[in-house]
Design brief:
Layout lengths: L18 H22 L1 E5 L13 E6 L52 E5 L5 E4 L6 H8 L1 H7 L1 E4 L7 E8 L4 E5 L2 E4 L2 E2 L8 E7 L6 H6 L7 E3 L3 E6 L1 H7 L5 E6 L28 E5 L6 E3 L5 H11 L4 E4 L2 E4 L2 E3 L1 E3 L4 E5 L9 H4 L2 E2 L3 E13 L2 E2 L6 E2 L2
Antiparallel strand pairs: 1-2, 2-22, 3-6, 3-22, 4-5, 6-20, 7-8, 7-14, 8-9, 10-12, 10-13, 11-12, 15-19, 16-17, 17-18, 20-21, 22-23, 22-24
Helix pairs in contact: 2-3
């Protein structure tokens, strides 16, 4: 890193660098090396929310492999090292410049994205952000409160693909699959998907009238109940192992998936594709839905316009409008569309506490960051969780 190696001293030998210059060169080299590793090999990531519990816990520290699916070439290359999208100690000051933009390109990797991989990706609805909003989805806020109300209440900013928030979920369906959810059970291409052993789902535990033993529940790692109905129906967030154990309790009559739409006045507009005229899907009863594949063509009609609208306009950069009952794409009448990218369906293992594809739809391939690989550190209320260190992620 000696940028002045050609300069000679009086004896004809290269000048010796000062201590300060040696430290500066070492620092520059370290920044370049770390940036290249972070961009092309692996990146550290922290679990901020419980959406993947108990597969991944809050404050699990991960290594995310960039080489598994192939490193993504930065689309916004002018950026501060080691900072994602915002300068430290600020809320909206950009840590990048959009003076140079590169098209999406990915180097070869070891594999394609597979069903049931745990994947890190940029939040698809993160192109527009309302600063300081408790809801991470600007578009959900607009659907619920109206565009003008959101504009008047928050500072609105926009972000390029690779500078959107990082999310981590499990890929439940890959490009070309058809997904359906029936009473909480996910079906892919007509087959029930495997249930991760550490995943959680809310269940209604019906008893003979008595409450469950609190000490015994604590031994099983069960907290709650979250809700109580009819004095003998209790809602708990349970793993498959918990469900099997509770079914053996003498006072337990039945354990069934909790379906929120059965207990409250459900807002169907919250669920993708946000078209209640054609779809009244819920978290637990959803689809069937085709996951778009590069090169595949779909017919466009009123019933699927809401499903593919954002793909055509936002993710693949076309203009789309409906005029006189006809679809106009890039100024030309069209009754079908051919996809330019592969798409994926991502869901959290903590099914009732996850903002995932059921609410905002597909994940485009250019949003994929990498594959969750290894937990290298983890800590909770009682300190370091030693049993989780250097554990692979499945």
């Amino acid at each position: 890193m000696n940028l002045a190696f050609w300069k000679k001293n009086k004896e004809g030998q290269p000048k010796k660098k000062s201590t300060a210059r040696e430290w500066l060169d070492a620092g520059i080299f370290a920044i370049i090396a770390a940036t290249l590793i972070r961009t092309f090999i692996f990146e550290a990531y922290t679990i901020p929310t419980p959406s993947m519990e108990k597969t991944l816990l809050v404050n699990d520290f991960l290594f995310v492999s960039k080489i598994s699916y192939g490193p993504r070439i930065p689309m916004t290359p002018l950026a501060m090292p080691f900072v994602h999208h915002t300068m430290p100690f600020t809320k909206s000051t950009k840590a990048y410049s959009e003076a140079i933009k590169w098209k999406y390109k990915r180097l070869p990797g070891f594999s394609d994205i597979k069903r049931y991989d745990v994947v890190v990706f940029n939040f698809p609805e993160g192109d527009t952000v309302a600063i300081d909003s408790p809801d991470p989805s600007y578009y959900n806020m607009v659907r619920q409160n109206g565009w003008q109300a959101v504009q008047n209440s928050y500072q609105i900013i926009h972000r390029p693909v690779d500078k959107r928030e990082n999310y981590i979920k499990r890929c439940m369906a890959e490009a070309g699959d058809t997904l359906r959810i029936v009473h909480g059970v996910v079906y892919v291409n007509g087959q029930a998907a495997p249930v991760p052993l550490a995943s959680q789902h809310k269940y209604v535990v019906e008893t003979s009238g008595d409450q469950l033993n609190g000490s015994r529940l604590e031994e099983l790692g069960i907290t709650g109940p979250e809700y109580t109905f009819d004095n003998n129906k209790f809602v708990y967030n349970l793993t498959p192992e918990n469900v099997a154990a509770l079914k053996k309790f003498p006072i337990v009559k039945n354990v069934t998936v909790y379906e929120e739409s059965n207990y409250i006045d459900f807002n169907y507009n919250m669920v993708f594709p946000h078209d209640t005229a054609h779809y009244k899907w819920t978290e637990e009863n959803f689809g069937p839905l085709y996951i778009p594949k590069k090169g595949a063509t779909v017919k466009l009609d009123d019933s699927n316009f809401a499903i593919y609208d954002r793909i055509i306009r936002v993710y693949e950069g076309n203009t789309l409008e409906k005029k006189d009952g006809k679809f106009i794409i890039n100024g030309q009448p069209a009754d079908s569309y051919t996809f330019k990218m592969n798409y994926y369906w991502m869901m959290g293992d903590n099914r009732n506490n996850s903002l995932d594809s059921r609410f905002w739809g597909f994940v485009p391939e250019d949003h994929v960051v990498g594959k969750a690989w290894l937990i290298w550190m983890s800590y909770g209320e009682n300190g370091i969780r030693w049993s989780r260190l250097f554990r692979g992620i499945k």
